[in-house]
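Troubleshooting log. The previous run stalled partway through. Resubmitting the same two chains, unchanged.
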Amino acid sequence: MSTSRIVAQADAVAALLNEHDFSLEFDASRKYVPIVLLKDAEKLNVIVVPRAFSSERLSRAEVEDTYSIDVGIIQRIQVDEAVDALMGLVGEVNDFLSDAEQRIVGGATWISTNNDPIYAPDHMNEMRQFTSVITVAYLMRRGA
Amino acid sequence: MSDLLSSGASWLASQRRAKLAHDVTYSRPSEGLEAVVPATVGRSEFEESAGYGGVSASFSTRDYLLTTADLADVFGEPAAGDRILDGAATWEVLSPGGQPPFGYSGQNRETVRVHVKEVAP
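Second attempt completed without errors. Output:
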């Protein structure tokens, strides 16, 4: 059975996050269906999802692939102080994935990080749930 | 002349409480308040929130009909964050789609409809 390259990339990002010590503990997992049940969101959920893939020919012999991976950070909150801590974690993950030492992941090179939404106000208002999504893009060149 | 419709609505509200309700535990954890009150389950659905980059939340949602007077002495009006323990399930009062988390029913405000979502106990 062949392994999808973007799934392998998402697995590599999840493994990288799990190896690092952040200010809040979590166990990142790669998922195909990134839906969290509200009643399961009391604990901190960090989910890694393959988002998009594109490929471009550079020459007769070389192709450049771009992988976009979403990292969702989700937890129910009861007090504003908890939001402060989660916003801190989002910043840490952003910095960590963009850090020079982490720029090669699964053989691909980091090219950009986009944090949108930084947090979802509607989730906070309607569910008291903190939701933040970080999209990380990686580039990999391979033989055509 | 008596207001026949108003007195009829009051009678129906009393019948709902007497014949169509079961006991639930209503609480306000932030203030340590708790009371057992009769409640009737209204609308009940399963919904999914707006997604962000495909990341979304799903939840069971329902309305409870409660007698305003049953809550008034202990809690005043319902508030977001209040909880209802009904059997094994815990429900939290939360605003649906930017609306208030509760509303009154009937012209005499004898019944209050609270919007809840299922959460972890």
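Takeaways: Strands of chain B lie at 22-28, 33-48, 56-67, 83-86, 89-93, 102-105, 111-119. The interface with chain A takes residues 48-50, 52-59, 80-81, 90, 92, 94-98, 117-120 of chain B (CB under 8 Å).
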